[in-house]
């Protein structure tokens, strides 16, 4: 198949469009330069390292897509000859620089990226002649711009079709020796047209931003992201942008105070009739290690702010803006010095707080504040003792998450009837017998993970709404049987890495349980099914738990699995060598069998897999996968009746591995289907004439 593209291209002289998107292609043959009628070429998501110089012969080419060609480092020197090119997509490539002479491509309307070079013919000045650019452009390696004169020759302000602009500098170890004023002047000359809607600036090396960043004349800007501007000692003035909805500020390590400069321009520009950030809806601060204070100064800012996120600001102290009337979501993580974190926000519905001091203060605030709209609460990362009365939980709360709060204890002083989802992870170490579920009678989902000291779950009242239960990585957990009686409507159960749990305790048969995900343990597996509690099960997944000590050699034993199964998945059972067909023979409703990462699995014993199977998937199990691919005579009769067999990323049966799409000069589409070992060229009957006229034989193999 390596020569397939070369052979095919030699026969498709009149192609107008060609796509190798996501094809296992490492090189493009020189013969592509002979397809002079080509208008559209898509090489996205391939492994190509270089493109042939003959690409420059495609003078009719209008669209070239190279998205996500991560091994591509250079474009051909002859790119400047593609004078009819209108669309060039080089996102997610690793180009070192642009080829010379990009200014000659005057018909370009979309240029996803421009990587600034150091040579005269690939500097930023080449952008000046590309007057028709629109949509979006990302300009990188701006450290190669020597002065503001070069920047001005890019004529960014004249490009009124650009809606999204990203300006980025490379991470530079010598950043401390740059001239801050020159950097500011360069950014000043890169000022875009006022039609801009989204702006992203990454690793700008100046200490302050030019005045155009945040100027109120940018009345269309809705989104701004500022990232890794390490030398900036103050944030730009953004409060007067009339349409700004989303603002993200990341990695401003030199900023210590956020104050008036964020709300109003330093030259006095302001509109007293309009509060700062009049339309802002989401605001995020992340990784600002020197930030100490947020001075809100009573400007009545952020009247429409819905989401506020502050993360990794370890020395931030004091108060947040106090009056946020529209705030619905507040997330604070790793801000250990921030003591008071719940502003006056009557509309808040989601609260996520992490930190040793913050968790205690938020529990106190919840107890003393009427958060009547709160539906989601997450608290995490607290090592101090916390006493949390159930009666203090807001009546509106539906989702409660407790993470890494080992000393937290609940005071069960009432029932809370609105809570539907409860997640407890690495918490409540003082509780061996967990009886909290009685306080939440309308739970739908319960997840208990990594609570190593918890030994039992005790339920004495009805959990008639419970549908989904997960208990993972609870090494001491032994008894959960009271849940069977309390939750008759349970549909999905997950028990991973809980080796002490015994499912053989008496209880009602679970007619509603449809999905079970358990770790392999002979005691657990046999106890789960031998007493027929799960005889209505349709979906079973068994996980080896990445445990090398699991010593099972063959699976499953005869009579183990419930006859109602429709789907069976085996994951990471490293020791299993043989799949027992006899143990599956009674599964007359089984449609899907999936085997993932069972590296020693090689054999199938017994007559054949169930006749009801529609799909067999094998991945990360090379011994069995190879025998299937080779149609091993001892194995193949046991699986040949299955319509779809997937081995790793290849398909057998009626499925197709790769499809190349092309068009003749008549505009008729060809579909060239590739499978291991051969290529079949196919077309509809009405396309046979067009195929024959360009030398393509229907059904030919190469």
UniProtKB/TrEMBL annotation:
Q: One matching Pfam family, short form?
A: LRR_R13L1-DRL21
List, alphabetically, the SUPFAM superfamilies matched: L domain-like, RNI-like
The organism's superkingdom is given as: Eukaryota
Gene3D superfamilies per record: Ribonuclease Inhibitor
Ranges for domain R13L1/DRL21-like LRR repeat region: 124-251
Where in the sequence is the signal peptide annotated?
none
InterPro entries named in the record: Leu-rich_rpt (IPR001611), LRR_dom_sf (IPR032675), LRR_R13L1-DRL21 (IPR056789)
The protein's name in its UniProt record: R13L1/DRL21-like LRR repeat region domain-containing protein
Q: What is the lineage of its organism?
A: Eukaryota, Viridiplantae, Streptophyta, Embryophyta, Tracheophyta
